[in-house]
Amino acid sequence: RPRTNGVGMCLDHANGHHHDHSHHKVVEEEPAKGTKFAVTTPLYYVNASPHMGSAYPTIAVDALARFYRMIGLHPVFVTGCDEHGEKILQAATKAGREPQDHCDLVSEEFRNLWTKLDIKYDRFIRTTSPRHEQIVKEFMERVWNNGDIYKAAYEGLYCTGCEEYKDPKDLLPGDMCPLHQAKCDSRKEENYFFKLTNYQDRLEQFLNENIDFIRPRDRRNEVLGWIKSGLRDFSVSRANNPWGIPIPRDPSQTIYVWFDALLGYVSSLLEESDEATLENCMKRGWPANVHVIGKDILRFHAVYWPAMLMSAGLPLPSHVYGHGFLTKDGMKMGKSLGNTLDPEELVDTYGANAVRYYFMKAIEFGRDGDFQLTRFLDICNADLAHSVGNLLNRSLN
Predict the structure, then answer these.
(1) Residue 11 confidence (pLDDT) above 50
(2) Burial track 273-285 (b if 16+ CB lie within 10 A, e otherwise)
(3) pLDDT per residue over 258-268, tens digit each?
(4) d(C-alpha 279, C-alpha 98), whole Å
(5) Half-sphere exposure of 75 toward its Cβ, with a 13 Å CA cutoff?
(6) How far apart, in Å, do the first and last CA atoms of the chain sit?
(7) Measured between alpha carbons, how far is 87 from 241 in angstroms, rounded to an integer?
(8) How are strands ordered across the β-sheet holding 164-166?
(9) What span, in angstroms and rounded, lies between the C-alpha atoms of 3 and 237?
(10) The pTM is what?
(11) In 73-99, which positions are buried (b, 16+ CB within 10 angstroms) versus exposed (e)?
């Protein structure tokens, strides 16, 4: 049987490259029968209710997991919520809620939507769970003991929406974040940093030896461009954000939200009876077969995450697949434009099958895609009502 090569077999053309299997080279073959392996959606921020942009990759991973199950494999379908960070604290405060109450409420909205969309996930991780916190702390200790964390003063421009310090050359005039169209704050604080620069050569070598690690191919070229232009160490703590996991060696600071959230892919794999250790996570479906993510969070998954895993001495995922953005009637969706697409409303009106079918059929996975109601109705009527409906009708009669 041809290898499935992560999402590639279903949604992209797999190519025929094979590599020897040294520690940080990815095994390209189809997972062995009986072996559990993770397939993951992003872990969604709970600063706001779920929208079509969060439903889209979840439908895709659900389709992939179903495919794997149909051919007798054992995927562990991971989804969940990223619940720490300044942005979430601000959202809770604005709504007049305690942060934990806010997280409980919004994470339940995600679960309810996945039920409506008939999403058959195996794990729903919440990064506020105590077991996840144990895994994050153990991981940070490994990285610290490897000599990759140090303390330094830092001054820079911070985008709360991205939860990231920005390089001035990546900003619009007036220090505006191009993604959030909001002015970045000038901040100066003493933080702990991860020595990403230690992994410049290893990351470049890894990507050259594993050409299918990042899909589609143009995303890979983008990441190689970032690495070749020179990596910079990044802050793994925040001095003034109380809504996070305290650093074990310095509880006056909390762990940077991305350093925390990425480990949700690992901590989610624990069985209920397992003690919360990295060793136990490794036995339950790690390394992941594929992380399906939006292209806006590619840097965190294709640069930061592999380097973090290398530092901790853990295997890397087989693939990262960066899907495109969704638009509506050719325009970017946004509350200010009044053109958001409510997945609950779509499902209530047309049913889960029609919504799932359209987003998997009508949009080339990996590219940006547009939603137009007339096209949605035309495709669903032609394919589901007429073709499949007529076939079913004739078969039953």
Answers:
(1) no
(2) eeebebebbeebb
(3) 999 999 999 99
(4) 34
(5) 26
(6) 36
(7) 10
(8) 164-166, 149-159, 185-194, 234-235
(9) 40
(10) 0.86
(11) bebbbbbbbbbbbbbbbebbeeeeeeb
